[in-house]
Write a structure and sequence with these properties.
By secondary structure, the protein is mainly α. It has 2 helices and no strands. It has helices at 3-11, 30-48. It is elongated, with a radius of gyration of 16 Å. The two termini are 31 Å apart.
C-alpha cells in the first residue's frame, strides 16, 4: 500500500475520545495520575479545535 493510500485510509477512521481503559486510583502510581492529567488536557485541546 502506498503512503498516499495509507493516509487516505486513515483519514476515514473514526476519532474516539473515550477508550476502554479502566483507571483505578487504588493501584495507580504517580506516573498513572500524571498520564491521566495529560490525557485530560489533550482532550480539552482537541475540543477547542
Amino acid at each position: 500500500m502506498s503512503a498516499k493510500q495509507n493516509q487516505e485510509k486513515q483519514s476515514h477512521l473514526p476519532v474516539a475520545k473515550n477508550e476502554d481503559v479502566e483507571f483505578s486510583a487504588e493501584v495507580a502510581d504517580r506516573d498513572d495520575f500524571e498520564a491521566a492529567e495529560r490525557a485530560k488536557a489533550a482532550d480539552h485541546r482537541q475540543e477547542d479545535n
